[in-house]
Write a structure and sequence with these properties.
The complex is a heterodimer. Chain A is mostly helical. Chain A has a domain at 24-124 and 140-237. Chain A has 11 helices and 2 strands. In chain A, strands 1-2 form a two-stranded antiparallel sheet. In chain A, a hairpin with a 2-residue loop joins strand 1 (134-138) and strand 2. The two termini of chain A are 37 Å apart. Chain B is α/β, with parallel strands linked by helices. In chain B, 37% of the residues lie in helices and 27% in strands. Chain B has helices at residues 44-52, 74-79, 97-104, 113-123, 125-129, 140-152, 170-185, 197-203, 221-226, 228-235, and strands at 4-15, 18-29, 33-37, 59-64, 67-68, 82-85, 158-162, 190-194, 206-211, 214-220. Chain B is globular. Classes of the chains: A mainly alpha, B alpha/beta. The interface between A and B is medium-sized, with 23 and 27 residues.
C-alpha cells in the first residue's frame, strides 16, 4: 500500500469520524445524564440541516453564522422538547422510565419526520458548497474546503464541549447529576434544569452536525436515519453513556469505514461497521471503554 | 423561638404505606451539637431524610431558621443552608476530591469559595494530599472525610450527619469523631445520628433517644450517660441486678 493511499484513507476516515463523534457525544450525554435511549437523534440532525439551509440560502448568512444559527436553533428546539415531553413524563413516571422515554423518542421521531415532510415537501434542500475551492494536503491529494471546514467545525465544537464539561461549574453539575443524582440534589443542584440543559446541548451537537454537512447531505425529511444508526453504533462500541469513548469511537468507526471503502470497495462500509458492532457485543458487551465506574466523561 | 436552627414538631413520616416516625419533635439551637441515638430501625435516618426534604413529612411541621420547609424539594432546602451527609455519602466517584469539594460549594455565588476550600483541606489534611485523586479510589475513612468536607463547603447553618462511624475501623472512627468535635469547636451546628452511643454522647451537648419511631428520652449528654435506661440498653453497664 502506498503512502499516498494510506494518507488518503486516514484523512477520509478522520473527516467522517468528526461527524460520528459529534452525533455520538450528544447521544452519550442523554444516556448518561437522563437515561434516555434516544431514537430521535437523527431528527435533531435533520432539524439542524433545515435550519442551516434556511440561514444560508434564505437569509443569506455567511457559512459560520449559518452553522451558529442552526446550533442556537437546535439548542432551543431541544430544550422545548425536553420541557414539553420529557419533563412531564418524568414527573409522572416513577417506574419504567427507560422504556417510556424511549417510546417517546420513537414517537417524536415519526412526528418530526412527517411534519418536515408536510412543511418542506419531499424536496432535497441542499447547497453546492459553503466554502468554494479545495485544500491541497499532498501532491497527490486535495480535499474540498467544505470537507475540511466541516471537520474543523466538528473538532472545535467537541473541544469546546469538552472544556465546558470539565472546566465550568455548570459542566461539573451535569457530570455530577450523571454520577449521583441524590448527591447532586444534596449539594443544591436543580435536576430539572440540568436535564433541560443537557437535552438542549445534545440537540445542539446534532444540529451542528446536520448544518455543517449540508453540502454533502442535503436537508430531507428522512435524512436522519443513517446518522442515527451510525451514532448508536459508535455509542454501543464505546460503552453506553461514555463521552470520552464516544469521541474516540467516532474516529475509530470513521477510519474503519474509510479502510473498508479502500480495501473492499464502496458499499461495504456499513457491513464493516456493523460487523465491528457484533464482535464488540459478543466479546465485550460493555463497550471498548466501558467499565464499572459511573460517570459520563470518565466512565 | 429565637436561636432555634431546626424545629421538628409532631412529625409523622415513612415510606409508602409504612409509617416509621410517630409524632417526633426535637429542636436544635444555634451552635449546638445534638446526637440522635437509638437502635437499628428506630427511624433515625428517616428523620434526617424528612428534615432534608428527601422524604416529605406526612403530618407535623419542620422549620429551618424559622421557615417551614416540610414541602420544599431537597435542592431548595440545601440552598437555605442545610447540609445532609448521608449514610452512603453520595460522592461523585468519578470526579477528583477537589471537584467534589467544589461541587459542595455549588450554591454559593460569592468569591470566597477558595477560602472554604483551603479551610476544608486544612481541616482534613488527607484530602489535601489526595486532592487530585478520584473520589472512587479513596479508602472508607477518607470517603467520610470527603463527604464531611463537601458538606462544609456550602458554609451550612446546620449539618446533618448520618452514621459516620458505620463500617469504619475503630481507629478511623476516632478520627471521624475528632473531626466532628473540631467542627463543634468552630461553632458549626450539628445533628448527628449514631449507633455508637458512648462516643457520641462524649462529644455532643445533648442527646435524643429514638426507639420504634418515637423520642423516648431527651437530655444533656452527661445526664444521658448516667441514665439507667441508656446504660442498660446502649452502654451495656449495670441494669437491674
Amino acid at each position: 500500500m502506498q503512502i499516498a493511499a494510506m494518507w488518503d484513507l486516514f484523512v477520509t476516515g478522520i473527516l467522517r469520524g468528526g461527524l460520528y463523534a459529534l452525533m455520538a457525544v450528544g447521544l452519550a450525554l442523554l444516556l448518561g445524564v437522563m437515561n434516555i435511549s434516544s431514537f430521535m437523534h437523527g431528527e435533531l440532525y435533520m432539524i439542524g440541516a433545515y435550519m442551516g439551509w434556511f440561514a444560508f440560502v434564505t437569509l443569506g448568512l455567511n457559512p459560520i453564522l449559518a452553522i451558529l444559527f442552526a446550533a442556537v436553533g437546535s439548542f432551543i428546539v431541544g430544550m422545548v422538547i425536553e420541557r414539553g415531553f420529557f419533563y412531564p413524563l418524568r414527573r409522572r413516571s416513577k417506574e419504567g422510565w427507560l422504556l417510556n422515554a424511549y417510546l417517546v423518542t420513537v414517537g417524536l421521531s415519526f412526528v418530526l419526520q412527517n411534519a418536515a415532510l408536510a412543511i418542506f415537501r419531499p424536496i432535497y434542500r441542499g447547497i453546492r458548497t459553503y466554502w468554494t475551492g479545495s485544500i491541497r494536503i499532498s501532491p497527490a491529494m486535495s480535499i474540498s474546503a467544505d470537507r475540511v471546514m466541516g471537520f474543523l467545525v466538528a473538532v472545535v465544537t467537541i473541544v469546546a464541549f469538552w472544556l465546558f464539561m470539565r472546566g465550568t461549574k455548570i459542566g461539573r453539575a451535569i457530570r455530577a447529576v450523571a454520577q449521583d443524582e441524590r448527591g447532586a440534589m444534596l449539594v443544591g443542584i436543580e435536576l430539572d434544569r440540568i436535564h433541560t440543559l443537557s437535552f438542549g446541548l445534545s440537540s445542539m451537537l446534532a444540529g451542528i452536525a446536520g448544518a455543517s454537512l449540508l453540502s454533502i447531505n442535503p436537508a430531507y425529511p428522512s435524512m436522519g436515519l443513517l446518522p442515527l444508526a451510525k451514532s448508536w453504533l459508535v455509542v454501543i462500541l464505546a460503552g453506553l453513556g461514555n463521552i470520552r469513548g464516544a469521541i474516540i469511537g467516532g474516529f475509530i468507526v470513521g477510519i474503519a469505514e474509510a479502510a473498508s471503502y479502500y480495501f473492499l470497495g464502496a458499499g461495504w462500509q456499513d457491513v464493516t461497521s456493523v460487523t465491528m458492532l457484533i464482535i464488540i457485543l459478543l466479546f465485550k458487551p460493555s463497550g471498548l471503554f466501558g467499565t464499572e465506574v459511573k460517570g459520563i466523561l470518565e466512565r | 423561638m429565637e436561636g432555634k436552627v431546626l424545629e421538628v414538631s409532631n412529625v409523622n413520616s415513612g415510606y409508602g404505606h409504612l409509617q416509621v416516625l410517630w409524632e417526633v419533635s426535637l429542636k436544635v439551637s444555634e451552635g449546638e451539637f445534638l446526637a440522635l441515638l437509638g437502635p437499628n430501625g428506630a427511624g433515625k435516618t428517616t428523620l434526617l431524610r424528612t428534615v432534608a426534604g428527601v422524604l416529605q413529612p406526612w403530618a407535623g411541621e419542620v422549620r429551618f431558621m424559622g421557615e417551614p420547609i416540610g414541602n420544599l424539594p431537597v435542592h431548595q432546602i440545601t440552598r437555605m443552608g442545610l447540609s445532609f451527609i448521608t449514610e452512603d455519602l453520595n460522592l461523585f466517584e468519578a470526579m477528583t476530591v477537589r471537584e467534589n469539594l467544589l461541587l459542595g460549594a455549588y450554591i454559593r455565588r460569592d468569591k470566597r469559595v477558595k477560602d472554604s476550600l483551603d479551610y476544608v483541606l486544612h481541616l482534613f489534611p488527607v484530602l489535601a494530599e489526595r486532592r487530585n485523586q478520584l473520589a472512587g479510589t479513596l479508602s472508607g475513612g477518607e470517603r467520610k472525610m470527603l463527604a464531611l468536607g463537601r458538606g462544609l463547603m456550602s458554609e451550612p447553618r446546620l449539618l446533618l450527619v448520618d452514621e459516620p462511624s458505620l463500617g469504619l475501623a475503630p481507629k478511623l472512627v476516632q478520627s471521624v469523631f475528632e473531626a466532628l468535635l473540631e467542627l463543634k469547636r468552630r461553632g458549626v451546628t450539628i445533628l448527628l445520628v449514631e449507633q455508637n452511643v458512648s462516643a457520641s454522647l462524649q462529644i455532643a451537648d445533648r442527646g435524643c433517644v429514638l426507639e420504634q419511631g418515637r423520642i423516648v428520652l431527651e437530655g444533656k449528654s452527661v445526664d444521658l450517660l448516667g441514665n439507667e435506661h441508656v446504660k442498660e440498653a446502649y452502654l451495656g453497664i449495670g441494669g437491674a441486678s
